[in-house]
Specification:
Pfam families: LrgA
Number of helices: 6
Number of strands: 0
Largest sheet: none
Main location: membrane
Keywords: Cell membrane, Membrane, Transmembrane, Transmembrane helix
Distance between the termini: 53 Å
Radius of gyration: 21 Å
Oligomer: single chain
Organism: Hydrogenophaga intermedia
Shape: flat
Subcellular location: Cell membrane
Helix content: over 70%
Number of domains: 2
Length: 120
């Protein structure tokens, strides 16, 4: 378990280093995860060594939300004071996300129809 956990942390560290070196607008752990994916695609035997540890971490992923819950409880008064702004931001961002997703889907469907020779 320790070697697998160390492997996961090394890939996260590599991602952080790459992001810091390139000033990329992507979180380091995401880059590390992409590197891990590429490594596992090239060396599938590593999957058997990492899989049990990764599954154990995923089973207890909900524990990572405890600090966020404590933070919400500590700032409950402020959240109440700014409830309208937070609510509007949530609704507007949800609607914008849905609109952009729908527009992207329509664009992709039209593009695929053109490639197949038909028109939408």
């Amino acid at each position: 378990m320790i070697p697998a956990l160390a492997t996961l942390l090394v890939f996260q560290l590599l991602g952080e280093v790459i992001v810091l070196a390139t000033d990329a607008p992507v979180p380091g752990p995401v880059v590390g995860l992409a590197l891990l994916l590429a490594t596992l695609a090239l060396r599938p035997a590593w999957l058997d060594a990492i899989k049990p540890t990764a599954q154990g971490l995923l089973q207890h992923l909900s524990l990572l939300f405890v600090p966020a819950g404590v933070g919400v409880m500590q700032h409950l008064q402020r959240l109440g004071d700014e409830a309208l702004a937070i609510g509007v931001a949530l609704v507007v961002s949800t609607l914008v996300g849905l609109a952009v997703s729908a527009w992207t889907m329509v664009w992709l469907m039209r593009r695929q129809a053109r490639r197949e020779g038909g028109s939408p």
